[in-house]
Amino acid sequence: MPSLPPPPTALSPRARLTRRHAIALGAVALGAPALALAQLGDKPLRILLPLSAGSGADGAVRAISNSLAKALGHPVVIENLPGAGGITGTTQIVRAAKDGSVIGVVSNNHVVNPSVYKNIPFDSIEDITPITVIGATPFVLVAHPSVPARNVKELIALAKARPGVLNYGSSGNGTILHLGAAMFVDQAQIDVKHIPYRGMGPLMNDILGGQVQLGVVAVAPAAAHIKSGTLRAVGVSTATRVPSLPEVPTIAEQGLPRYELEGWIAAIAPAGTPKAEVARLYNGFKAALAMPEARDALVAQGYEIKLMPPEPSAAFFRSELARMAQVVKNANVKMD
Q1: For residue 174, what pLDDT band results from cuts at 50, 70 and 90?
Q2: Residue 81: exposed, middle, or buried by beta-carbon count in 10 A (0-12, 13-18, 19+)?
Q3: Residue ranges of the alpha helices (H) in the chain?
Q4: Which residues contact 321 (CB under 8 A, 6 or more apart)?
């Protein structure tokens, strides 16, 4: 995916916080509700997640929720609304009140689904107002140790020597992990069979057990297995190497220069939410992610902070929609 803009100064290491942000943090620590939402009164801010409890994105949002509540001066309530690749929950987000009282946090699937599903009851661009891109997590192409390939070049050679014999698993048809592997297959021009699973947990279990040979998975849950040798890292998905796996080269540097992908999460509001409320919400996320406890918790979940104001976030959504449409087309992924 195209590189996101660098995070603002407030998101750099603690020693680089500006005096302005230090003052803001002090005000929050004293309980000053400087960013209190104008329309809420005593009601909590509801964050709808069209994702399963326990997912990586769910953990990331919950990790920063307390800091967000402090920054906004209101309680934050998180509601999981999984189903249909995120369509079920996002339908409720776009139909929610347009007063800043209900927002959503979505992942890559938000811009993938229009190309995968025939009928979606909302427009992924026109029916939302982006608040901010929050963060992104890298992926890694892994192989079971029984696969006799240690890098991209060897894996491509093996797949071409045995067309249709190797397989890769994913967390489900049309998911970002499916498309991450499909991108590799397309760019490497190899014939590898896809085996969809119902979620990341079953996928990881079967890669570790050798029932499936390959997969693109998030770095955070895979890192310990890679270091112990129960999984082999073939290459990371990002444009640059990942700090937690510095010895693992990127897929791009191993001969597929167009390969780049991250799993991102972003906050959105229903289309028509007043600009003042959108700005207030963005500033709430900005203040929250300047707090060491939120920043550290998000990093512990495997995410790099990628805070982006509303207008650049909207441009990012549009560019990702177009990019993933091409990936879906190349992978020939369709669902009813």
Answers
A1: confident
A2: middle
A3: 19-29, 56-72, 87-94, 109-116, 152-161, 176-188, 200-209, 219-228, 275-289, 292-300, 310-331
A4: 111, 114, 124, 125
pTM of the model: 0.84
264, 176 Cβ separation under 8 angstroms? no
Q: Residue 53 falls within a domain, yes or no?
A: yes
> What pLDDT is attached to residue 20?
32
Last residue of a domain, one of 254, 285, 315: 254
d(C-alpha 83, C-alpha 62), whole Å: 19
Tally of CB atoms within 10 A around 306 = 24
Q: For residue range 100-112, what is the model confidence (pLDDT) as tens digits?
A: 999 999 999 999 9
Maximum Cα–Cα distance across the chain: 65
pLDDT per residue as tens digits for the range 22-71: 333 333 333 334 454 555 666 899 999 998 888 888 999 999 999 999 99
Report the distance separating Cα 32 and Cα 220, nearest Å.
Answer: 35
Does residue 131 lie within any of the structural domains?
A: yes
Domain boundary among 254, 288, 322: 254
User: What is the extent of the structural domain holding 168?
Assistant: 138-254
Shared-domain flag, residues 131 and 274: yes
Query: For all residues of the chain together, what is the average pLDDT?
Result: 88
Residues 122 and 188 in one domain: no
- Structural domains counted in the chain: 2
